[in-house]
Structure formats: C-alpha cells, structure tokens
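Predict structure. Chain length: 880.
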Amino acid sequence: MSLLDEFVSHLSFELDDFQLQGCRSVQDERSVLVCAPTGAGKTIVGEFAAAVALRQGTRCFYTTPIKALSNQKFHDLVTDHGEDAVGLLTGDVSINPSAPIVVMTTEVLRNMIYASSGSLDRLTHVVMDEIHFLADRDRGAVWEEVILGLEDHVQLIGLSATVSNSEEFGEWLRTVRGDTDIVVSDHRPIPLDQHMMVGRRVYELFEPGSDRVNGQLLSKIERVERAEDRFRPLGRPEVISVLRDRDMLPAITFIFSRAGCDGALFQCLRSQLVLTTSEESALIKELVDDAVADIDPEDLQVLRFTQWRAALMRGFAAHHAGMLPAFRHIVERLFVRGLLKAVFATETLALGINMPARTVVLEKLVKFNGETHADLTPGQYTQLTGRAGRRGIDHMGNAVVQWAPALDPRAVAGLASTRTYPLVSTFAPGYNMAINMVKMNGREESLRLIEKSFAQFQADASVVGDVRAIEKESQVVDSLEDALDNRIRELAVPGGRADIVDYVQLRQRLSREEREAKQRASTERKKEVVAVLGKLQVGDVIALAGPKRPQLAAVVTPASQPHDPRPWITTEKGWSGRIDASGIAIPPITIGRIRVPKNVRNHPRRNTRMITAELRRGHFERPKSMKARSRVSSKIKNQIREHPVHAWPVSDREELARLALEYSQAKSTLDARKATVSRAKDTLGSHFDRILGLLSEMDYVEVEAGEYQVTEEGERLARIHAGSDLLIAQCLKRGVWDNLDPAELAGAVSTCVFENRKALAEGEVDVPTDAMAAAITHTQRVWGELASDERRHRLPLSREPDPAFATAAHQWAAGAPLGYCLQAAAHGGAELTPGDFVRSCLQLNDALEQVAKTAYTDEVRRNARKAIGAISRGVVAVSA
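Prediction complete.
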C-alpha cells in the first residue's frame, strides 16, 4: 500500500480530484502549488505532506500567516498525530520545537533560514498555507524570502486561494524551486447561492440556471425607486430575525469598521433578539467564565465584560482586531461549536481562520482602504462570501447583499461572477534582509537571488509587454498629432497645437475638479447627516429630501449611538421606523417641534396616525427644495473663458477640441507607460546596492578584497526584524537607551514599534520621566539623521518614531491597571481599544526581545528582559 493509499484509508471522507492530484505530487517528491476556493479542503495536501515527513523520519514545517491560524492548525495536527509529534512556534509561544512536525508563522521560518538554524537539518517539506499572502503590502516580502532561501531539496507545498495568474506564479516557482506542479480548482464543495435583501424580502440575485439578474428583483427595486413600494432599511436585529425565519443562520455579517461591529452588537442587545436556548446560554456562560478566569476583575470591568458576555449568551457577538485577542478567540471557539448564531465582523475574519457560516451578509460594497472609500474588488467579495457554507453540515451556502438606494444589482452580479484576482508581489529588499543575504550568500549571489524574486519576474514580464505597447502607442500619437496639425492649418485658426491642447487640458482639469468636489461634498454631507441624526430630540420635526419636494417627519425616539445614529421617525405619509445615515444623501433640516407623549414613544408604530395628525395641525413651513450642491473653484472657469482659444469660432473650436482631447489622452497614456518602464528598469538589484551603500557608510558592512563582509554591528542588525530595524540598531549603537529603567526602556522602544491608526495631534507628548523624555527626543533626532541619509541614497524613509503609546507602555510595565493605561494612551494621542493595546504590547515585547539579544551593554539587555516580564501580565499574558 502506498503512503497516499494508507493516508486516504484513515479519512472519513473521499478526496476530490484536485486533492488527490496535489497529494500525488507530494508523494512523487515534487513541489506543488494548490489553488482552490476557501473551504474547498486544500489543506489536506499540506496534512499529507506532514504525514509523509513523519513516516520518513524527516521534518515538516507548516507555516501560516497569522498566530490564530497556527494555533488552530497545531491543534488539528495534534489530534491526528499526537502531542509528541507536533510542535508550535509563533514568536511568543514555543511548544515541542524539536518535533518532526512544527507549525509556525512564516516569519519564524524566515528567521531560522537567516540564522542557519540547526532545526533545518532534517527538513524535507515546507507547507505554506495561504501563500497568496505574498501579495500583502506589509508582510508579503517574508513569503518570498522563505521561498528563495530554502534549500533546493526541500519540497514546497503552497496552498492558495484561487488567483487568476496561478500559471504565472507557478512558472516563477518552477524557476526558483525546480519541478513544481500546478493544481487549480474552481469547484466549491458547498455551492454558493447569491441573494439580495430588499427590506424584509430576500431575492435570488440570478435567474434560475442563468447568469442574468433576477427580473423580480429588478422590478421590485424600480418600484421602490419610483416610490410606488414602501421601503424601509432594516436594523441589524431585524435582518438577523429575517435570516432566522428563513433557516439561514448561523450568519456572519461583514461590517467594514470596528465601531460598526460594536454598534451592531449593542443594537442587538437593546432589542428583544435571543438566538439561543436556555441550555446553550448556560453552556456559553460556563465556557466564557472559564476562559477569562485569569483576567483581573478590575480589567474585566474596563472591558465591559458583563455586557459582552450577555450578548454571547443570547447568541450574537462582534469580531474585529480592536477586541482583546482572548475575547476574539472565545468568539471563534463558540461559533465553531455552533453556540453563536450571528457574528458582526470586519474583513479580518476572512483571512484564514476556520470559521464558516451558513450565510454571509454584506451590508455595503464599499470599504475604507486606508486612504479613501473604495468599491470591493471581485477578489475581496469572493474572499468574504467564501465563508458561507459549512462542509459536512450545509448543502448550500448563502451570500446576501443588503440593497440600499443607488446600489445596482447588476454591479453585484458582476462582482459575484468575476474570476480575475491576480497575485501581485510586494517584495522589496530591506535593511535586515540585505544584511542577512550578504551574510549568507555574499553580494553577487544575493543579487542573483533578488533578481529571481517574483516581483522582478513580474516586472520583467510587464516590461516586455510595455515596450511593445510603447511602439504601437507612439505610432498612434504621431498619427493623431499629424491629423491635429493638418486640421489646424485647414481651418486657419489664430493659434497652434500647443494652444488647443492647453485649452483642452484646462477643461479636463475643470471636469476632474468638479468630480472631486462632488465626492468631497458627498463625504461632508454624510458626516453632516450623522451629526444631525445624532442631535435629534424627541418631538423634533424635520424635513427630508424627497424626489419632488421635501417630506416632513417627526422624531419619536432619539438616537442612542452617536457613531451610528438611528433615530425612530414617523413621516407625514405614515411610514414609521428607524433611519440611518446610509440611506440619506442630504442632511435633514429641523423646522419645528411637536409634543410626543410617552406612550407614543413606547409604541411608535401603533400611534402613527396620532403623529401624522400632529404634523398636519402644525402647519409647518417646509423648505422649497433640498438639493445637493458642490462648489468648484471659479479660478479654472475664468482661465477657460479668458483663454485665447475660447474666442475661436465655436464649431472650429469644438472640432479641434475633440481631436486635441484624443491626442492628449493618447500622449498621457504613452508617457505613463514610459514612466512605468523606466521604474521597472530601476531593478530590485539596484535598490539592494543602494541599501548596501548606506549600510557601508554606517559600518554595518565593509568591503574586503572586493567582497562585502558583515561587521560586528551588522551581526546585531541581522537579528533585528522589526519594521524600524535600522533605527533600532542605530539607537542601540549610539547608546540612546542606556541608563533607562525597564519601564522607561519599554516606553522609549515603543516609539519605534507603535503605529497609530489615527494621525497624532500636533504638539509634544508628555511622558512620565525626564530620562525617558530625553531618550525619545534623541531617538527622533537619530531618525532625522537617518531619513536624511536615506533621501541621499534614494531609499524609502524609515517610519518616523511615534511617542503616542510611550506613556501607556511605561505605565503598564510599571504595573498600572488597564483602564489607567488606556487613558494614558488617549492623553498621548492614541485612541486604543483593549485589543489595540494588547497587540501593541505584544509587538513591543517582540522588539524588546530583539533589544535583549543585540544591545551593547549588559544593563540594557537585562532591563529589556525585565520589561518583557513586566509587560507579560494580565490581559497581555492571557492573549499571548
């Protein structure tokens, strides 16, 4: 019996063809890339690789992108192979590290490779789960470092979500890893039904057996938009109730903000919604109380534990990165056990954690990407809805998009049916990477490795296509230029090509500014709507913008959540319900007041007629119109009117303007393409050499007999893996953090690690001690010098030190309670949730661990270890 036959014989289910194909590649000692949808079962190929290594007496490392996924996979493999056979390494946790199978985060393996660790000696298999994380903006480079750094004999098993350029990625893997099979499956083991919810009705998105949008759905939306059918946006508890009535729970509702998730939880708490039986509720209470037994009661009070547990006991929860990690893990465990029926989550839940639901709900198809609000991509939509459908439990998964005015079902259908999600490398050499590569391979071999990266592979491939495109586009531009010049001569206008092109570009700029002004005005109006709704009081009479004329309404119940205000109103036409900012484009106007008795407030829908009668009796004067306006600078309009071309005969001017616009657009495309090629030719190898130039100046490397050698200072830098690695190394080298006690050291080091989610207010941050203040000031001065050197060497600037967390870090290390430390962070300019605070402490501990290994003096090393011990208490220790 072959190894694969033996492995399959112990499974309780039959393998799909793509799973068998991937396992055969592993058995034939070939690397393999397996691309399949979320929930398809691709991890079985990685589990087979672990079983093969165990049988052969060699080692398998199973890497994951996040600690939660590492913990989950560790427990899965322990169940299969026993505690002695499986270990776990996540940076802050080490269990049985010499085991034949070790689960770890990808960074741990990268660090092993750079340290030439003896743990790699018998390594034959590396599983890289969620290998598409290679495209992650912040951490993606680590995946390429591992792929490029592994010994040639090691089999690589890459497990990826479905990507459209899997062949390109596979071709690169063959180039750098040798024989690599590509296994791609688009098959979802649990089919996904696409739905759209309009009010309380849930419609199929597509016609049965077709890719056409459901005609009934389109008709319903048309009637609503013509105001023929009543439409009322549902509150979160009502949405969950509708899903419960249709047997579509458990459900995950994706809301793209932490505040939105918390707001949804509180809305459900305020409602009568209960999704659990009394037995389930009692079991949840028991499990939760056991899980938090080691957290200080005072800290639990700060965490609003009683209220949070009450929500869990009723069957619903929030899940986002701002929560305490221990609380997040409790939610995950309860959901997997089927005890939670509804979870309101940010998109971080879609990243690998095994937490599927029967239904996924999307409230909106727009999310903030860190810079602006942008539409979901097809890849993001598929990643989110991929959580729908539990294998072995559900016959069908459900994706439900909530309709709102201006949402086109055809756009949703396009998202649901598009299958183009390219994997794009984010690899770029950094200081730690450069020093480690020179240390391991020397400069020439390091350059060859970097030039073999997927980033360079993609850049080279794109340059070939771009060069061909430049040739064709240059011909088009020349042709358009000739046509424009000839027509100018024929019409004999008093000017030339430069004049009409300048005029057209002014008009383009005006159009662009008008669009931007409209977008800005929309954003400002949305903020104003939230502010207005949040301030409304009982009895306020408001005017709401309508299709023809403003409509009057009275406030029956005010909003209770300022960040997501949802007051209850009754309109003059008799509609009664809650409104929120998502359905209102123009801010309401308060025009008067009526008296609303208490019994009406308690039963608003039952007393609709009383409110409408009061509105009629009040004879309120409604605004004549409520229109959205956006202002555009009149400067450009004046420039256009005063431009010489504006005085040309209109017919001649407009004919030439059309030609000039076509020419201008073609030339812009050509110039952009040339710039892209120019940037691509500035290769990663050149970037690497510029890094070595700076490191040589700073004595981290030196040249001997034409070869780069890593100095003693460079050896220290090689062991610093934080984002601000060179800044930390410079601070240690120059003694910036000497003579600080453990708490002061924690505060000073935090400035190089902490990254505020919100911009820090201008002004200095107060810190507890003079020594710590001096250290932070000196750290900022070192950064200023480093940034100047980086500009000179044409390198990206290291992130500027951020002191917003320093006082909170100092106080926590000094033993202060959680609530006090959160207040200290807020005073410093960092509005942190408990989850943010814990995550920042864990990141600080990682950096302090590196300081303890690389500091120049025994005192700093000793104080770094003491700081780690002081920070690792309470909620931080439980989360770790």
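Summary: The chain has a mean pLDDT of 87.
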